[in-house]
Amino acid sequence: MSFPPSSRERDPISSNLLEKSLSHPASSSPPPQPQDTELAPPSLSSEPTSTQPTSPPPTLSSSASAGGKTTHQTHDPISTHVLDLTTGRPAPNIPVSLYLLTDYGPSVPFTGLTDPNGRVSSWTAPDGPSLREIFINNAEQLDKKMVWGLKFETGKYWGGETLFPEVEIRFFVDAREGRYHVPMLLGPWSYTVYRGS
Questions:
Q1: pTM summary value
Q2: Which of 22-26, 57-61, 69-73 has the highest mean pLDDT?
């Protein structure tokens, strides 16, 4: 018949735990009572933290007027991108015109120049409705599509060594669909245009 071990014969783990509990007796003081004070509101520091954006999110179109022309500083509802098929790289410094043909056109062209990445994301236009305003007005007419045109001055890019002095395309736009990105793959003897994302 076996008996439970006496206090002197406890296993080493139990003895160790017992010694620790005896060397740190529980405090006999009552637990702290909540104080009747108001909590301070959270700090509204203007310094950015890792969860706060450091700049406002981009808008579809914000404009600034200078010298009788309006430049849209952020992405407009129509953008383009030109890639040089002979190098596989972006095609910079190509003058591009964008104009509305129907229902309200032809409009005075919006103008742009492809940047070092071959892109035109914002357009310059004479004073008048912005591209965004035209899209908003058209979106209210549920059964109407607009026809827009893009004209690329490709002859200047190739230095005249091309079949196309310019490339002009026309395309339908449903303003309710938001943005239209229309890239072009450009060679001196051919080109391809498609709707991108």
A1: 0.61
A2: 22-26
